[in-house]
């Protein structure tokens, strides 16, 4: 049976697994979009970029994705601390700041490759 702490860790780790931006990878590799009215406009831009420029745009896209995940976790953490928001999975409340750090801090640490405190 999975403990509430393990569920918390799994939630954070799943968000870490999803931090990589597909759009950033596509731009970095010079991959084009399908020729739809909505996306075709980007193909000309991607074709016009040098490899170095594609890498820079790719980095911007990746930073934007990670920033969005981080900012979402900041909002959740603020609501947890100020408005008693809690995360519940399968009817079980997940621990709030089980390591004395905010949800977004735990995500940043795991994204950087740090172990969970109990794994050190």
3D architecture notes:
With 120 residues, this protein is mostly helical. It has one domain. It has helices spanning 4-17, 22-28, 40-48, 51-83, 103-111, and strands at residues 88-89, 92-93. A two-stranded antiparallel sheet has the order 1-2. The mean pLDDT is 94.
Beta strand count: 2
Which consecutive residue ranges, at least 5 long each, have pLDDT under 50?
none
Question: Main sheet?
Answer: 2 strands, antiparallel
Supply the number of helical segments. 5
Share in β-strands: under 5%
C-alpha geometry: elongated
> Number of folding domains?
1
| Oligomeric state as shown | single chain
Question: Which properties best describe this structure?
Answer:
2 strands; about 60% helix; about 120 residues; mainly alpha; two-stranded antiparallel sheet; single chain
Gist of the model:
This protein is 60% helix and 3% strand. It is mainly α. The chain has one domain (4-119).
Secondary structure topology:
Layout: H1 4-17, H2 22-28, H3 40-48, H4 51-83, E1 88-89, E2 92-93, H5 103-111
Antiparallel strand pairs: 1-2
Helix pairs in contact: 1-5, 2-4, 4-5
